[in-house]
Amino acid sequence: MTTLRTTVSAGATSEGLLWEPSGRWVRGRKGDITVVDSRHPVLVWEPGVPVPMYAFPREEVREDLLRPAKNPPTGAHTGSRIFYDLEADGELLENAAWTFPADDLAGHIAFEWFRRTGRGLDHWYEEEEEIFVHPRDPHKRVDALPSSRHVVVEIGGTVVADTHRPVLLFETGLPTRYYIPREDVRLGLFVPTDHASACPYKGTAEYWSWRGEGDVPPNVVWSYPEPLAAVAAVKGLLAFYDEAVDVVVDGERLERPTTPFSRALSTRSTA
Description:
This protein is mainly beta. It contains 2 helices and 23 strands.
């Protein structure tokens, strides 16, 4: 039996990285090729980046698929100087992997995730469940709770949804999202789009845009047709970006929140 040298406690580095070991079995694939198969991953948070990434012991990475990067980037991934190109599944992926300079993370390799950066490994699994975009943060909680609150959604003074049976989704670091049954939404005022997004906590969402006038960003409404089991209560329900519409809950008009999505929504609405 081989004894792997891995981190055994959480910590911070002089470069500002935060890290902690994870007990999850993690695999990363490029096409049908398993590039990472790790039972000793480490979660790493870079300064100013709200979501974590994984770094893996070299012993649990297909290093034979890695090549020294031909065009390594500068200023990427908190002081990292060693980057690798990945040759797998008939493709050469530039700068798909890297090492951190921190002594605490010596002997570990991190990878880009395709659905986050547009390059890197395209399928990731924690245990037997596929995950998307980035690892799930163990310090973040997502709860979907059925409610009897009276929720009204308005756009430019027009009521577009009115329900007494929402599901409230509470997600650490984000405002409460109100998921509303389709029967309680005037869906005819919206048009479906081909936009889609993936979330490691909820699944893959589909979107609708407002048909009417006004400064309303596209894809302002979304739904999870097949959500992950942890938030099964939102299946098929519709939610609105509170940042771009008016929401009234039990007679109280809520202030529009400022979130990481606010700037993107503002850009969309003026494009």
